[in-house]
What we know:
Elements: E1 5-10, E2 17-19, E3 25-27, H1 31-36, H2 41-44, E4 46-51, H3 62-73, E5 79-83, H4 89-99, E6 106-109, H5 122-134, H6 136-140, H7 142-145, E7 148-151, E8 154-157, E9 162-163, E10 172-173, E11 181-184, E12 187-190, H8 197-206, E13 217-221, H9 229-236, E14 245-250, H10 261-270, E15 273-277, H11 295-300, E16 304-305, H12 311-323, H13 328-336
Parallel strand pairs: 1-4, 1-5, 5-6, 6-7, 13-14, 14-15, 15-16
Antiparallel strand pairs: 2-3, 7-8, 8-11, 9-10, 11-12
Amino acid sequence: MTKPRIHILALGGTIATRPDASGVMQMGLGADDLVAAVPLLETVAEISAETVSRVGSHSLTFDQLHALAAKIRGLEVDGVVVTQGTDSLEETSFLLDLLLDLQVPVVVTAAMRNPSLTSPDGPGNLLAAVRVASNPWVRAHANALGVVVAMLDEVYAAADVLKVHPTRINGFASTQTGPLAALVEDRVVPMSLPVRDAMVAARKRLGAAGSGKAQSVALLWTSIDESGRMIEAMVAAPDKLGYRGAVIAAMGGGHTPEHSTDVLLRLSAAMPTVVSPRAGGGPLLHKTYGGPSSEIGLRKAGLIWGGRLHPLKARALLETCLRAGLDRAAVNEVFEGWN
Length: 339
């Protein structure tokens, strides 16, 4: 039987670090090094590998990810595995899912333990990702699954996966939906398909988003007794401090401090402003609580409702909308799918 052709794109991250002379971990390993560390890969697929960058995922940019998506679209393979750092994996996988509409699997993976530690998880995660990308069920449902994340023998939808711990080996989960599949022995065991109506609709609206210019989007977390002075500074500045949109990580089901509501409404009048749950996922409320800083008041005032999207993913979606030149009404329509 012919083995599937899987192309590995390496971006850097913990999975690609090695110790320097002082023992501190530094970026340095490339795609060939990662492949060489996992001899079993050649029993699963016909592997090709390419080093795209050697940076931590905390330093990636939207422009780099748009370029990566373009590179993936140009590949003629049966599946793609992207290795990167864990710091921004929940954002990068979601953005790739927005930008890619393919009939082949795209699997993102990483490592929580660097190669100098006992039982580093990078080689196992890479093998798992290649197994996922090569799996017949995954390949048959590639478009329905979209971009997925493989970590610690579980497979997650890009729209739902979150980094839930900064250092633990089981640092990733989909708290709202659970995994799509699990890896057992050398098998991929399917569990579910994700609900992707919102993603499909967003892609249709966005069109060739990569052709636009990068847009700055602020991410503002609400908390008890927050004064709103940062928002005041943004609204007062002639150029809005360079920002063209904002995401508000709101309390509860979609609430903000009442004393800062006025400045928040002025921010919304100045730029598209999305409300997303600081709890990490929704769905947000629509019509339960009254008052100017409640979900009823904020929605009535014109703030865009982020629904179940984590603030980090909402920011990636808003930047993509603005980059594509969508007006406020179109942006609202895109986000409405996640409500």
